[in-house]
Task: inverse folding
């Protein structure tokens, strides 16, 4: 039986948050590697269409880097400001980096993003 993943970004883990496609969906752990379990614990997982997240492989094009950074920054914002799980020091101890610039905010979701609480 597969893991039941959840997301701070959406209730529908079968619909891409970028393209809104409902087929070809892959679950993206926003913080992978050794932080994969933290991603699952905090809901830092998103459904992405394989055209945005091809086979879970890292893409080197600019759009993927912007999306990846935006997702990480939104997780940081959720952790510190929305759910108040911890402060900036706690975030840094857990994830080792801050994602503070907001230059990509409107690029990803055309100003339509709202927190799912």
Result:
């Amino acid at each position: 039986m597969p893991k039941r993943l959840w997301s701070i970004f959406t209730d529908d883990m079968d619909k891409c948050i970028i393209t809104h496609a409902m087929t070809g969906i892959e679950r993206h752990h926003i913080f992978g590697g050794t932080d994969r379990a933290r991603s699952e614990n905090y809901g830092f997982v998103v459904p992405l269409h394989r055209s945005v997240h091809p086979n879970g492989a890292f893409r080197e094009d600019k759009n993927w880097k912007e999306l990846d950074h935006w997702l990480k920054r939104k997780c940081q914002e959720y952790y510190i400001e929305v759910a108040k799980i911890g402060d900036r020091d706690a975030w840094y101890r857990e994830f080792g980096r801050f994602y503070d610039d907001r230059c990509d905010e409107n690029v990803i979701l055309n100003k339509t993003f709202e927190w799912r609480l």
Summary: The radius of gyration is 14 Å.
